[in-house]
């Protein structure tokens, strides 16, 4: 694959030797970008628009650039929906020393980093020899994790890919995108144009740490926690789980990956982590393979949403101070490349919710009973799965029915996208040793 990269972009770079370059300089502005896939904070960012229809495969439309003291932020848009970190040949070129004679030569840039986004790796040219490294080594973060036409990216400004030299060595950078899937793949900026961005060192206010105190004592707090291979039964990790759970003080927890953990073991864990008053015990239920729902309130009834699928719905008996009970659906969908399987799982869930709203069938809920889907949903592929969960648009209609709006008022459900308590990032999973960058795979979706 490395030979492909060199041949592909090397050919393009050679053709530019006799072409006069035009330069664009973005209006610099540091911004408090929140990497959450909502794109709400980009007003005033440096921007470049690319002509539409000028690529033989992917078609770049625009990008925007900003920074704070820790990250370079890039938002870019295409005309097609793609998975950002798989199945594409997009390369991002970063000339971080503003010297066209160093690094990898491309379209007037001497790139110190060529990031092959769809292959989740980068070639770095900051030392005597090129270094092949991972996105995580660049402190790369992006959202959304599902497919899309627009993405926001953060790259750490203080990283040393390969462990020796700083990637960003000066006050400005030049950057470019190319689709390497075809000889005439789109470029942004176009051939012969160079885009420069000057870092703005104006301080950006740190996010105010979010406290765990409830605003109202009657607020219902739901927590989801993937325990990673029976973590509640791992004596080397159980104290860490107890510390986190005790700090959050949830009313209900949806635990995932409790393969060999029983509901009794989970209840005992919660009794130790958060002892209830008057010698009461936590309630726990395990219906499907791997998920356990624990509640400080009684669990009236539970349903297996679909046989063989990790989806369990539990009706929680809330005290009289609450207007209704609540249905909590603990979910852990199929991971990784299993888009078709995940789609069937979310189709089945929508059918279950529509059944709950109408008399007869498997489940009948009193009208306007709130419900929430909580868990590690593994939404790392096609956006359609999330669309189905929110809108009720079933794909496999022959098997699961026509679908329909899932909420009681026939509107879409709400997706809770919440940044971390002390970081403007909304990813929920991170493994620095993985080839995959941090991802948002844990969800709360509610009526």
What would you say this structure looks like, in words?
The protein is an alpha+beta fold. It has two domains: 2-198, Immunoglobulin-like; 222-446, 4-Layer Sandwich (Deoxyribonuclease I, Chain A), CATH 3.60.10. It has helices spanning 2-15, 238-248, 263-273, 339-357, 384-391, 397-400, and strands at 22-25, 46-49, 60-67, 71-82, 90-95, 104-106, 109-111, 113-116, 121-124, 131-134, 141-143, 148-156, 172-179, 187-188, 193-198, 222-226, 252-256, 283-285, 292-295, 299-304, 311-316, 326-332, 371-376, 414-415, 442-446. The strands form five sheets. Strands 1, 5, 8, 9, 10, 13, 14 and 15 form an eight-stranded mixed β-sheet that branches. The chain has a six-stranded mixed β-sheet with strand order 20-21-22-23-25-24, with no helix packed on it. A five-stranded antiparallel β-sheet has the order 2-3-4-12-11, with no helix packed on it. It is globular, with a radius of gyration of 25 Å. Residues 1-20 have low confidence and may be disordered.
Secondary structure: elements and pairs:
Layout: H1 2-15, E1 22-25, E2 46-49, E3 60-67, E4 71-82, E5 90-95, E6 104-106, E7 109-111, E8 113-116, E9 121-124, E10 131-134, E11 141-143, E12 148-156, E13 172-179, E14 187-188, E15 193-198, E16 222-226, H2 238-248, E17 252-256, H3 263-273, E18 283-285, E19 292-295, E20 299-304, E21 311-316, E22 326-332, H4 339-357, E23 371-376, H5 384-391, H6 397-400, E24 414-415, E25 442-446
Parallel strand pairs: 1-15, 16-17, 22-23
Antiparallel strand pairs: 2-3, 3-4, 4-12, 5-8, 5-13, 6-7, 8-9, 9-10, 11-12, 13-14, 13-15, 17-19, 18-19, 20-21, 21-22, 23-25, 24-25
């Amino acid at each position: 694959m490395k030979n492909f990269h060199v041949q592909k972009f090397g050919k393009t770079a050679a053709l530019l030797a006799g072409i006069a370059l035009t330069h664009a300089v973005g209006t610099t502005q540091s911004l408090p970008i929140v990497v959450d896939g909502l794109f709400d904070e980009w007003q005033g960012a440096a921007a470049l628009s690319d002509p539409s229809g000028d690529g033989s495969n992917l078609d770049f439309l625009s990008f925007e650039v900003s920074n704070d003291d820790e990250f370079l932020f890039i938002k870019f848009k295409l005309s097609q929906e793609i998975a950002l970190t798989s199945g594409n040949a997009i390369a991002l070129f970063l000339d971080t020393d503003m010297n066209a004679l160093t690094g990898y030569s491309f379209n007037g840039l001497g790139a110190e980093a060529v990031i092959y986004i769809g292959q989740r790796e980068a070639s770095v040219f900051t030392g005597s020899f090129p270094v092949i490294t991972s996105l995580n080594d660049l402190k790369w973060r992006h959202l959304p994790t599902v497919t899309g036409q627009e993405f926001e990216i953060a790259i750490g400004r203080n990283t040393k890919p390969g462990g020796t030299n700083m990637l960003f060595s000066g006050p400005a950078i030049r950057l470019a995108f190319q689709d390497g899937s075809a000889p005439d793949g789109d470029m942004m900026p176009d051939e012969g144009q160079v885009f420069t961005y000057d870092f703005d060192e104006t301080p950006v206010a740190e996010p105010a740490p979010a406290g765990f105190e409830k605003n109202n004592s009657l607020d219902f707090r739901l927590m989801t926690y993937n325990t990673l291979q029976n973590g509640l039964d791992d004596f080397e990790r159980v104290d860490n789980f107890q510390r986190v759970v005790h700090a959050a003080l949830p009313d209900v927890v949806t635990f995932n990956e409790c393969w060999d953990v029983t509901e009794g073991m989970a209840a005992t864990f919660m009794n130790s982590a958060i002892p209830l008053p008057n010698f009461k015990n936590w309630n726990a239920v395990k219906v499907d393979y791997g998920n356990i729902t624990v509640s400080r309130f009684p669990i009236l009834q539970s349903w297996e949403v679909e046989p063989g699928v990790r989806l369990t719905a539990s009706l929680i008996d809330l005290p009289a101070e609450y207007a209704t009970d609540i249905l909590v659906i603990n979910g852990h969908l199929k991971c990784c490349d299993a888009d078709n399987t995940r789609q069937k799982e979310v189709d089945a869930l929508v059918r279950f919710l529509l059944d709950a709203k109408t008399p007869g069938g498997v489940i009948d809920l009193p009208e306007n009973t709130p419900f929430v889907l909580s868990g590690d949903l593994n939404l790392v592929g096609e956006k359609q799965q999330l669309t189905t969960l929110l809108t009720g648009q079933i794909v496999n209609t022959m098997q699961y029915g026509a679908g329909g709006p899932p909420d009681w008022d026939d509107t879409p459900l709400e997706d809770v996208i919440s940044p971390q308590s002390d970081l403007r990032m909304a990813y929920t999973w991170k493994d620095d040793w993985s080839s995959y960058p941090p991802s948002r795979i844990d969800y709360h979706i509610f009526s």
